[in-house]
Design goal:
alpha/beta; D-Maltodextrin-Binding Protein, domain 2
């Protein structure tokens, strides 16, 4: 018997609604147990604090514990691989940072591909970098520094913190490439030692996070030549950008949340919605502002995925051009 068209359409719509019910119910029920947020760096730094801040927000909103688990090692690849191998049910998340995008170029053999194996959930923050020099250096602007460096090739030490391939390292390499200067890279394990040696004159220049250096800048112990962001910063309004002198230059540490591949889209969307709500919360905005860190504009999972893809492509070019190899 042939059904009338109107009756057929009603039945089809009803069937579609019924098929969507399991997905709706799954998203409503999530999370059903404690959620782990894997942080691929040691505890105590900004990334760890950021994960704990957002974990507490999600815990309060979703009613299950969000437990921070620090899994440092091998250029952050240990923590990333733990999430790649986790069941794709949204109960294991990853704090994704720039190191996730540099790993593919730094290491010849990885058991994962971040773009393919990590589902982007939401971008959270961007931590600006600033180009600093010891005040004994005669250069007071980026053009003066470039001119001085070209007149003194391989005589200026540029420090980076956190090891080979970190944002402060690749930011320095990108500057060297775009400015056409030869600087000696001196890697450090931590920011504190970089600051000590920059203040003492053992190294002459570095790219450092604003939170770690703004006190020295305001006390005139270190000279800020430029910020590495695309626009000037509210906390350092008189400092130009590197891009003002090297158009297109930008380097900053960013972070967001990812999940294992094939995590259901409805769960990803629920997490995305809650994280974006957190970024609009006045208390969280104040937390970021107090640390000179910018919150990302609310965006979709695909927006964050595009950022990851763009950063992977950008830094791979720098790493290969500079012949950087992972430790």
């Amino acid at each position: 018997m042939k059904l009338p068209r109107r009756q057929f359409l009603h039945l089809a719509a009803g069937a579609a609604a019924l098929s969507a019910l399991p997905h709706i119910a799954r998203a409503q029920a999530y999370p059903t147990r404690p959620v782990r947020i894997i942080v691929p760096v040691a505890s105590g730094g900004l990334a760890d604090s950021l994960a704990r801040l957002m974990g507490q927000w999600l815990q309060d909103r979703l009613g299950q514990p969000f437990v921070i688990e620090n899994r440092p090692g091998a250029g952050n690849t240990v923590g990333i691989e733990a999430v790649v191998k986790a069941p794709p049910d949204g109960h294991t998340l990853l704090l994704v940072g720039i190191s996730a995008t540099t790993g593919a170029a730094l290491y010849d053999k990885l058991n994962f591909n971040v773009i393919c194996d990590i589902a982007p959930v939401a971008a959270i923050s961007r931590e600006p970098l600033v180009m600093l020099v010891n005040p004994s250096l005669s250069a007071e602007t980026v053009p003066e520094f470039i001119a001085y460096a070209k007149a003194n090739p391989d005589k200026i030490n540029i420090a980076s913190s956190g090891g080979i391939g970190t944002i402060t390292h690749v930011a320095a390499e990108l500057f060297k490439m775009m400015a056409g200067v030869k600087l000696i890279h001196v890697p450090y394990r931590g920011t504190a030692q970089v600051m000590t040696d920059l203040l003492g004159g053992q190294v002459q220049v570095t790219f450092a996070s604003v939170p770690s250096s703004i006190g020295h800048i305001r006390a005139d112990k270190l000279r800020a030549l430029a910020v590495a962001t695309a626009r000037r910063l509210e906390v350092l309004p008189d400092i130009p950008t590197v891009g003002d002198f090297l158009p297109g230059y930008e380097a900053s540490y960013w972070a967001g949340i990812g999940a294992s591949k094939s995590t259901p889209a409805d769960i990803v969307e629920k997490l995305n919605k809650e994280i974006n709500a957190g970024l609009a919360d006045p208390k969280i905005k104040t937390w970021f502002a107090d640390r000179a860190v910018s919150t990302m504009l609310p965006g979709s999972p695909s927006d964050f995925g595009q950022l990851i893809a763009d950063e992977t492509k950008k830094w791979a070019k720098v790493i290969r051009a500079a012949n950087i190899k992972g430790e």
